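HUMAN: I'm a chemist; might I ask for a sequence paired with its structure tokens?

ASSISTANT:
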Amino acid sequence: MPICGRDNCPVKTRMSAPGQHGAFRRRLSEYGLQLREKQKAKRVYGIRERQFQRYFKEALRSKEKTGEILLQLLERRLDNVLYRAGFASSRPHARQMIGHGLVRLNGRRVTIPSLLVAVGDKITFAKKDAVIYDEVVRPSWIKVKKEDRIAQIAAFPAREEIGAEINEKMVIEYYSR
């Protein structure tokens, strides 16, 4: 999606970058590409640098593929699961719902959006009149019962199901320099 959100965005259609020296833009270095990929991952999931570093260190401790575990950890966040299940229109909306105490995890009210869900966890609403958004594509690792407004975690997400356009290898290369 273009920066301004329109298909005919000037930044997209212009032959050079904006500004006086836009014609002299150089190709990004390897470091610049890695940094951009990391920043993209942070922006998609709406987290800050310290938290992202913590997830990376946890993924690094794992015996499995670091990149896949990193994306799996990001996908397992409660705010992301709420968005993926169709209970919220966006990740910030899900974060706000959790912060206001409208969500229950295994019957207990939670107010921490970064909480990691596990297999078998049930997510419900504290109120009965909650809206479910149908335009969201639900992954197979989340089972949703629309009439009861319950989402259950069936398994951990696989790399193919994550769908985020993030090159996790570049993120790993960024942190291992």
